[in-house]
Amino acid sequence: DAKTTQPTSMDCAEGRAANLPCNHSTISGNEYVYWYRQIHSQGPQYIIHGLKNNETNEMASLIITEDRKSSTLILPHATLRDTAVYYCIVRVRTGNQFYFGTGTSLTVIP
Amino acid sequence: NAGVTQTPKFQVLKTGQSMTLQCAQDMNHEYMSWYRQDPGMGLRLIHYSVGAGITDQGEVPNGYNVSRSTTEDFPLRLLSAAPSQTSVYFCASSYSGNEYFGAGTRLSVL
C-alpha cells in the first residue's frame, strides 16, 4: 500500500535549506512518520521520526502539520553529500513492516 | 560494534541454483527483515522476524525462505534462483522502530 506521496525529484543549492515534502493523508493515530535516505545504492540510513510534534536532531528537522496529513523534512544547510534518495514512511512504532515508496531524489547543486 | 553485516557483497548465480544470503547483527535486536531493491525502485519487504523462532512474510516472499534460530542471524535462502531475482538485497535489524541496514548483497541470476 502506498501510504505516502513524495515528489519524484528535487534540486537544492549547496548551503541552502532543502525542504522535502511528504503527503500521508490516510495516516492513523498510532502511526509515526519516519524519514530515511539512501546514498548511491548503500543501505538506507535513518534520519528522523515523529508522531505529531516537530522534531529536530543533528541531521534534520521534521515538521508535521497539525492534522498530520503531511510533513516536511528540512536539511538546514544542504551539502553535496546530502545528494540521495529520501524516503518518507508511515508505520506503527512497534511494527516491523516498513513500506518504502520510490522516494524523492534530492540533488544538491554546487 | 559491527552493526548489520551481510555476506557476500556480490554473487552471480545460474538459473536453478540455490544459495543463502547471510545476515548477522550484534546489537541484540529482536526485529530483523530482508528487503530487495530493483533498479529505480524503492525497497520491498521479503520476510521479517520479530524474534528467534518467529518469521513472517512481507510483500514479495515467493521464491525465498527464512529461518531465525538465533537473535543474531537471519539468513535468506533462494530455493531455485530465477533471473527475476536479480536485485540488491538488504538486511535490517531494528529496535524501538528504527531500522539499521546492512550494506547490501548484489545478486545477478543468469
Rg of Cα set of chain A: 13 Å
Largest sheet of chain B: 7 strands, mixed
Shape of chain B: globular
Q: Work out the number of β strands of chain B.
A: 11
- Tally of helical runs of chain B: 0
**Helix residue percentage of chain B:** under 10%
Mean pLDDT of chain A: 91
Q: Strand order across the biggest sheet of chain A?
A: 1-9-8-3-4
Q: What is the chain-wise order of helices and strands of chain A?
A: EEEEEEEEE
Description:
- The complex is a heterodimer of chains A (110) and B (110).
- With 110 residues, chain A is mainly beta.
- In chain A, 0% of the residues lie in helices and 47% in strands.
- Chain A contains no helices and nine strands.
- The radius of gyration of chain A is 13 Å and the shape is globular.
- The chains are: A mainly beta (110), B mainly beta (110).
- The interface between A and B is medium-sized, with 23 and 28 residues.
Which structural traits does this protein have?
heterodimer, A: 110 residues, five-stranded mixed sheet, four-stranded antiparallel sheet, globular, B: 110 residues, seven-stranded mixed sheet, 11 strands
Give the gist of this structure.
The complex is a heterodimer of chains A (110) and B (110). Chain A contains no helices and 9 strands. Chain A is mainly beta and 110 residues long.
Topology:
The complex is a heterodimer of chains A (110) and B (110).
Chain A: E1 9-13, E2 18-23, E3 31-38, E4 45-50, E5 55-56, E6 61-64, E7 70-75, E8 84-92, E9 104-109
Parallel strand pairs in A: 1-9
Antiparallel strand pairs in A: 2-7, 3-4, 3-8, 5-6, 6-7, 8-9
Chain B: E1 4-7, E2 10-13, E3 19-25, E4 31-37, E5 43-51, E6 54-57, E7 64-66, E8 76-78, E9 87-95, E10 98-101, E11 105-109
